[in-house]
Amino acid sequence: MSFLELAKRRCSVRSFLDRPVEEDTLLSILEAGRWAPSACNNQPWIFVVIREKSAREQLGAVYNREWFIRAPVILAVCCDRNSSWRRSDGKDYGDVDIAIAVDHMTLAATELGVGTCWIGAFNAVEARKALLLPETIDPIIFTPIGYPAPDKPRKSRKSLDETVHWEFFGGKKR
């Protein structure tokens, strides 16, 4: 399948089959994140894999959605602020690096027939407690990982004319 076909196939999954994710599949997904580019190649990501049912249930305080904790795997992607690159004006690119790594992993999961869903609206204080994170490691994204239950209709996408500006903001259309 082409990259564009893969990108079109990837969607947020919020309903998972009661089927474990095989170790080699999970390792392939994590490997895709490991190979993501990062600012100055600092690779500030920390991947925390949560598979035990009791540990997933504890994450209910982090993101209180039944479908989230029912997924066979939950991945917490964190940023090591001691290793994330900062621009000269102080802008920390760690969150960008994490987003790139997560995008690589969600696409790899899609290619392998596994579903994911970006979760950013979580309780960071509870996440820090549940994951036992030191002060310099920030939780950035959670994603459940599992085999999707039967498909729901996809949401539509904006057209290129609604999102692309040529030469400058508000520039001419194609």
**SSE pattern, N- to C-terminal:** HHEHHEHEHEH
Taking strands numbered 1, 2, ... along the chain, how are they ordered across the largest sheet?
1-2-4-3
- Share of helix among residues? 25-40%
- What's the overall geometry? globular
State the end-to-end distance. 28 Å
Q: What structural class should be given to the helix and strand makeup?
A: alpha+beta
Strand content: 5-15%
Rg, Cα atoms, Å: 17 Å
Give the assembly state of these chains: single chain
Structure description:
Helix 2 (23-34) runs antiparallel to helix 5 (94-111). The chain has 174 residues and is α+β, with helices and mostly antiparallel strands. The protein has helices spanning 3-9, 23-34, 53-58, 66-70, 94-111, 124-131, 160-163, and strands spanning 45-50, 73-80, 115-116, 137-146. It is globular, with a radius of gyration of 17 Å. The protein is 34% helix and 15% strand.
Please give a handful of descriptors for the protein shown.
globular, 7 helices, 174 residues, alpha+beta
Task: Annotate the secondary structure layout.
Elements: H1 3-9, H2 23-34, E1 45-50, H3 53-58, H4 66-70, E2 73-80, H5 94-111, E3 115-116, H6 124-131, E4 137-146, H7 160-163
Antiparallel strand pairs: 1-2, 2-4, 3-4
Helix pairs in contact: 2-5
Summarize the structure.
With 174 residues, this protein is of the alpha+beta class. 34% of the residues lie in helices and 15% in strands.
